[in-house]
Structure formats: C-alpha cells, structure tokens
Amino acid sequence: MKRINLIAFSSLIAIAASATAASADKLTLYCSAQEDWCQLMARSFEDATGIDVNMTRKSSGETFAQVKAESSNPKGDVWWGGTGDPHLQAAEENLTESYMSPMRDQLHDWAISQAEGADNKTIGIYSGALGYGYNTDLLAANNLPEPSCWRDLLKPEYKGHVQMANPNSSGTAYTTLASMVQLFGEEEGFEFMKGLHSNINQYTKSGSAPIKAAGRGENTIGIVFMHDAVKQAVSGFPVKVVAPCEGTGYEIGSMSIISGARNMDEAKKFYDWALSADAQNLALQVNAFQVPSNRGAETSPSAPDMSTIKLIDYDFKTYGSSDERKRLLQRWDEDVSTLPQ
Amino acid sequence: MRNATRENAVHPALIFWIAAGWVGFCLLPWYGVEDGFFTFEWLLDGYPFDEDYAPAAFLIGQGEKLWLAPLLLPLVASLFALGRVKSDPVYARILVMTGAVGFGWLMAQGFGIGIRGFSFEWLKALFGDLGDRQFGMGYGALVVASSFLFLFTQGIAARGAINGDVFVVSAIGGVIVIVTTFVFFPIAKMLVAAFITEEGGYSASVFVSKFFDDRLWGIGCLSGGRCGAAWNSFFLALIVGFVTTALGLVFALVVTRSGFRYKRLLRALTVLPIITPPFVIGLALILLFGLSGSVTQFFAELFGIQPTRWLYGMPGVLIAQTLAFTPIAFLVLIGVVEGVSPSMEEAAQTLRAGRWETFRTVSLPLMRPGLANAFLLGFIESMADFGNPLVLGGNFDVLSTEIFFAIVGAQYDQGRAAVLAMVLLFFTLSAFYAQRMWLGKKNYTTVSGKGDAGVHPLMPRGLAIPVFIAAAVWGLFTIVVYCMILYGSVVELWGVNNTLTFKHYVTAFSVRIEETGIRWNGAAWDSFWTTIKISAAAAPLTAIVGLVTAYLLTRQTFAGKNAFEFGTMLSFAIPGTVIGVSYILAFNVPPIEITGTGIILIVSFIFRNMPVGVRAGIASMSQLDKSLDESSLTLGANSWQTFRAIILPLLRPAILAALVYSFVRAMTAISAVIFLVSAEYDMATSYIIGRVENNDYGLAIAYSTTLIVVMLSAVGILQLLVGRTKIGRRTQFGVGE
C-alpha cells in the first residue's frame, strides 16, 4: 500500500510540475499550415515583438470544429493558415472578427477579394493552384503515357492508377470538384467526375494523402494542390508535377481573428505582421511552395510559376457557401460515388 | 462488542468533511484561477478580496455573487449532526438533507448562471436580466461540492444502506458523481446534437434521415459493391475480437504452461505493439506489403505477377489491429490463466483425466471470464480504433474514421457524427451484454483462503504443437515489423534513400550544455515532457478509480448495480474522437471550465482507460474467494481495511495491468487527444502525426522509437514498484521464477 501512496504522491507532484507561470503579453495562435512553418511563424513573431506565442497546429477542418465548439468562450486569438473555405465558413457563422489591416495596400488583388467576400473577417495570405503529380518510376514500370491535361486522366489505361481525396472529408477534393464544375460547367463537370471515378483506386480521407502515396510508390497519380506535389519532389521522391492544360482552380490560404479574442491587440499585431513581406518570406525556409499574398514577398524557384498556369476565375463566395457545398457534395454522393468502379 | 465501541459521538470522517466544507467556502478561491490550477500566484495578488481570487464567504460579504449565499444554510445545518450518535435517525436525516440540498444548489447555480448571465431563456424571463456572470468552478467550489457529496453518503450509510458501511457508500457515491460528470454529461451534450437541425431547432426527422443512410447500412459488398460503414466496423471488430483472443490465449499458455525458455523475451515481444504510437505499425506494414513494399516486390519478381494494392482495405486494417490489440488480450488472459488454481487441475488428474481432458473440461472453462473479457476488449478496441483504418483503410470505411471526418471534414456535420456515434455505441454495448449472457451466473473463483499449493500441468501435446507454431509465426512477424520500424528511423528518407544516418534523432532530441545549464533544443522535447508528465499523472489515478470500481462491482451488492457497471464501461465503448469533441462542448463553459489545460487531458485519459482497470480488476477479483473478505470482516476489520490489506495485495497483476495500460495508452492515444491538445499542452502523438503529414517520416519514426524505449523502461520500473503476486505455489521446475 505504501507503494500505491508513493505512486499517487508522485503523480500529484507531476501534476503540480506541469503548471506553468503566466507572463505579460501573450497570443494564442491556431495554425493550420504545416508544423515547421507554424513553429517558424510563432518564433519569428516572438522575436519581432516580444509577445509570447502559444501555438497549436491542427488541420483547418479540426481548427474550424474547435473554434466553433469554443465559440461561447473563445480560447484562441488568431487562426492563421489553412485553405480558405473553413475561414469563409467561420466568417459566415460570425465566429471571426472583421478587421481592416493597414497592410492591405501591399497585397495581391486575390487576397483582398477574399476579404471583401467575407465582410473583412478573413484575408488571403497565400495561394496554391490545383493540379496533380505522378510517380515517374511507377509510370515507367507500367508503360503509361505521361498525362498533361485533366481529360488525360479519363483514359482507360490509367484505371486503378489515380487517387484523390473524398470531397466529403477533404477541402482539397472539394476544391477539385468545384473547379471541375466551374471549368467544364456543372453537367460536364459531373460527367468528368464520373469518368474519373472508374479510374480511381482509392478516395483518401486527407487531401494531400494521394501525392504522399505516390511519393512512397503506393499509387501512380495523385490529384492534389501543386505545392504539395512540389514538396514531394523536393523531398527527394520521384514525383513530377503537372499543371493541367485546360486550366485549374486554386485555394487561398487565409487568416482570421477569432471573435471575442482574449488578446485582441496582440492578435491585430500578428495579423499585420503576417501580411508583411518579411513574414511571408519565411515560407521559403520551410519548403512551403505556395504563392505569398504580399506583392513584395519572394517566391521559391521550385514553386510552380503562377503566371504560366491557366487559372480559372474561381468563385469563392458561391462555392464556399455551405448551401452550394452541401448541394454539390450530395450530388457527388448520389451520382458519382455509388457508380461501380 | 464491535458495535459498542462504535456507539460514540465522535466521527472523524464526518468532522473532516464538515471542516472541508467550511474551509472551501471561507478560505479557498471559489472560482477557477485563470493562470492554471496549480499556480499559487493568487496568494500574493489581492487575495482574499480581489473578485477573481476571493473565497465565496468574502464575495458574499462584499455583496457580490449573492446566489452563493444559500449554500451557508446546509453548511450550518451540518453542524447539528456533530455530537449525535450514528443510530440516531436525526443524524442520518440531517446529513442526507444538508448533502442533497447543498449539492443540488451548487449544481443548479453552476448550470443556471454562466459567463453571459442566466444560461436559460426561461430564467431570464422569470427573473429579468441578471447583470452579473460567473466563470468556472475553482478549488473552493470543488472542495465544497465534495464535502456535500460525502456528507450525503455518510447520511445514507447511517440510514443502514450497505450495512452502514461508510467507505462503500462513499466510494459508490464518488464514482457515480465523477462518471456522471466526465462521461454521461459530455456524451449527452454530444448526442443531443443528433437531433439539432441546421437552423438550431430540434427534430426527430433529422435523426431518422441521418440514421437510415446507405453509406451506413448498405449491403452492396454481398453483390460485389461496397458495404456500409456500420457493417464494415461490425464484422471487422468480430474477427479482430476472435483472433486477438485466440492469439492472446496462445501466448498466455506458452508463458505459463510450457517449458519454453525465453518467456521474458516473449512477454516483451507481446507488449511491444501496445506501446507503439499510432500510424507506425501501419507505415511499417505499407513498407513491407504495400504496392512498392519489399515483400510485395520480392514475390512479384519471384512469380512474375503484377503487384497489387491488396493491403489497402480490410486485410491491412485486420493485420494492423491484430498486431496492435493481441497484447491487450494477452495482458487480460495472463492473469486469468495464472490464476486458475492448480488444485482443480490436479484433482482432475487424480481422477484419471488425461492432460487434454483436464485442459478442455477444467482449465478452459475456468478461463471463461478472461476469454470473454479479452474478446470484449478486442471488439471494442477495434470498433474505436482510428489510426489504423486511417492509414490502411483504403475504400473500406469504418465508423470511427467516418465520425472523425464528419466533424473535421468538408461537411462539418456534427449531427451525422452523433448518429454514427450512437450506432457504434449500440454495437459495443450489445457485445457487452452478449458477454455477460455467456458468462452467466457461474462461479469462477479458484483462489480461496484454503491451502492452494499445486503446479499447473503442462499443455497437452496435441495443443502444444499448434500453440507453439502460432506463437512462433506471430512472434517472428512482430520482430520483422519492429526491425522495419527501427530501420526506418535511421535511414535518410524511408523507401527512397537508404543511407544510414542519425540525423532524425539529433533533430528531435539534441541537447546542448550551456553555462546556464542544459538547453533542450531538440524539436521534440516540449511535447515529450508534456506527454511524460500527463501520462505519469493519469496512470495511478486511472488505476485507483478502476480498481475501486471493480471492487464495488464484484464484492458489493447494491441497487442499480447493473446501471452502475454500464456507466463505468460506457466511456470505453465511445470512440476517442467523440470523447474529444464532446469534452470541448461540455467543458469549455462554466461550471467546469478546463479546456486548454493539462487537466482535461488527464481527465480524458482516466475515463477512457478506466474500463480496462475495471475489467482487469473484475477478472482477477472474481477468482478471489469471498471467504477471504468475510474472514477479514469477521476478525473486526472494516471494508476499507479489508480492501487494503486483503484484496489489493492479491490484485497486483491487475494493478500492474491497469497502471501499465493507462500509462502507455496516455502516451500513445491519439483520437481524443487531437481535439484536446492546446498550445501549452501538446502531446507526442499529435506532434508525430504533424510530422507524418509533413512527410518527415524519419523524424516521426525516430520519435516513436524513442517513445517505445521510454515506455518499455517505464513498464519495467512499474513492474518492480508494484511487485508480483505471490500466491504461494510451488513452481513447475523446482526453481523459483
């Protein structure tokens, strides 16, 4: 019994030791970009301002779920990074605060229009175009031609070689669906998805999983954001990135201030800082190949050159709204996912 | 005699709890201290008059938070119980009344008044706007609540419940309150979401439309298509339950009933998967059997066949889950197989039964509780498992991942998540009842106070050979998988560039000695220390709650025992994702406001893992003869002394199982954790997943490997601390173990 007491006692010590001291200026950052980028942003902001940053990294869907669950008693101050749709959704549900940053005149138009579409409750910080990547080794091993357009993926020889995420679970895949609808028109867009369906070997849960599987040689072609595919190639995996010839949709990585933030002043400081060219240049240090929203920020030589990619005029307001999203997803569920493969 | 000495009017427990109530009310800060539960800066910062730190008495004295004033009434009333004897009906009545009124009012004000004044519209309508608000409960409120609770249970005991046993009644009351608070309350909050329409109203038709969904109940796989997630989960869990139980029994038999020499090695091997962080087994399996996996490639070249993606789907998930959950079955079964009294088996052999007949008719039936518990755990674990289906599931949808993506996916459909959670819960609870039916009301006790010195017979030969083969094959497979993992942590880029390197360990765990001391500048240290602290705090608490509950369930009879057992098992049957989200919903607002703290992580681990402690405790305790307790009670010990001096020492295997299990689960759990981690309290598993998402397989695996080593040593230390049960038997080969 003495041992049990000892254990109970030592656990109390452990609890007590896990308490931390409070300090003066602080900021709680919810970060939905990749881990090392999040770390770098947090530490650099600390260095630049002396404000302590508490950073939690979660995917944008998880962060949205958390912000929504915490809405009656917000714990976070700023939500930085992640695809724009959950940010727009949060704005729509009044979970985030509108703010006019003095940095706005330095930004690309697409970043501003993201803000204007959402009552200034969110703003663009980077963008990335949709495309696909393929494993060059596997393509050669299976004697497959090199694809270069969206429609190439419908060819029967790619049967069982294409992977994309399930639009019900992944924002990337929803962007794909919405892009096809905007690129080809709704009816033809769904015909495309049906044709693609018969070549798909798996609908993954997470958006970047298809290209990771391609990198490891578990899949041949993965439909993802191009910067994710570039990252695989730069990491050393045999992946080639394709910007489809018909043109493509894109995402706008966004940032929002959480409504009722406990550290509102610090949140605004972070917001302004994150829009500066210096802060956006940090992306290069962590192999983040998205295009920064500040016109003065540098882009990586490995990044897909946005000027050579045909971008469609993606309607974020319409396709980011929950009604349109539900309608398209339901149609995809009924018309596409139930077809035999 | 005994009664005569007890008939005085001094009740130490009573005095203690009354004093605690007053201290909590008059001295401790009533509301939660925002800097953290264990910081004591408030002592120097305006206490006791500052509104944030003031005790309730000072708040009322300053004319604030007047709704706390009625609590004084029961506090004063409780004083009248002092000086009365226990048999006095007034004594019981005072305590029951003060406890119930005090606790009730505490709850009512806590839920009624929140951070935006009155929490309910009808209260606003009745009393007008409050113009004030309150935050989450702190030390003061907590102590006062416990005081009222235990005054109430002492009153109930004094009225004669459970033979007037204060310890048992208080334990029951305590377990009921914490299980209600941390299991039923959040789950209820979550499940209500199943009936909420998009506009925020309530409607049953929403539930019906989400429930009768083809994605849930489709049976297309019978005709070549795809089946619904519900059927997938169910059949997978059935198979995993059977396979893990069978393999667990195999290992338990090899360890206890054979001349096998390397038992320790085998034990370590079976424990490995349980201490492996999620995703790692899945990644190793992909590297072995995936489309480009080494085994696949080898066979493809050997036979000239096209490699396939056979791993992705049910086969992969089944293999990974079997690897991961066999150890749980083993941990449950080893205690039971060891516990079967050799006397029974010797008796059978004396009666000329052969080894095989003895095993089949005596040993195996006596292992029934263990087998049933092992199956139940395998079934439930498989149902709730989240990491393996995520990595290996392919197009094989299961409920747990569907729930996760209903919440965090592109649909944000909490209602659908709640409906799926209900289906999952239905399956696991059905399994729970099926198990109870099978065990029935038979008696499985074999360890009694009577002489018990015998030797377990060896396995019959016909059984030994297949058992050895199965153990060897599985053991070898496990070794291969873990070699792959170790290998993965020391190569440059897994599967592409196989240059050996230690850089992943350096990135994660580098340390620099500076003038000011050691600087932990590796990337993984923060989450590593947090994880160790949280796990070390959660493990003993889990074991205590679990074993006390097991004791109540096996040794005491009281009204509502079945409901009580159901409640304590419930949290285990609910997948972690649901627990995570429901905890955020329930504990982000007063009266209990603990999101973003380390406490919410500890609490979630306690209630997620407690059922294993309960099951292990029940399995062991049902083998201990009640006459042991009775003789202790007859000799004048009370039930607390009996529990401490008789039951606990005999329960060492169960205690060890509970401690080990809860410690390693706290270090390897992911599904609930991913919602509950915060900036300050990031856990190792969520960090590892971040690395996996970011292609840093090397770092992720290096970190996981380190965690495995840390947990192995922790398990070893725990084993030393707790010690082994000495049932006082001869050993098989004449030498002590």
TrEMBL record, chain A:
Highest taxon, organism lineage: Bacteria
InterPro entries in the record: Ferric-bd
Residues making up the signal peptide according to the UniProt record: 1-21
SUPFAM superfamilies given in the database record: Periplasmic binding protein-like II (SSF53850)
UniProt key word Signal: yes
Keyword Cell membrane carried by entry: no
Protein name, as recorded: ABC transporter substrate-binding protein
Native species: Aliiroseovarius salicola
TrEMBL record, chain B:
Record InterPro entries: MetI-like, MetI-like_sf
Domain ABC transmembrane type-1 per the UniProt entry, residue ranges: 230-435, 528-718
Regions that span the bilayer: 12-33, 66-82, 94-115, 135-154, 166-188, 234-256, 268-290, 310-337, 417-434, 463-487, 534-554, 566-586, 598-618, 697-722
Compartments it resides in: Cell membrane
Keywords assigned: Cell membrane, Membrane, Transmembrane, Transmembrane helix, Transport
Gene3D superfamilies: MetI-like
Domain of life: Bacteria
Membrane topology summary: Multi-pass membrane protein
Family the entry assigns: Belongs to the binding-protein-dependent transport system permease family.
Family annotation (PANTHER family): FERRIC TRANSPORT SYSTEM PERMEASE PROTEIN FBPB 1-RELATED (PTHR30183:SF7), MOLYBDENUM TRANSPORT SYSTEM PERMEASE PROTEIN MODB (PTHR30183)
Name used for this protein in its record: Iron ABC transporter permease
Organism of this sequence: Aliiroseovarius salicola
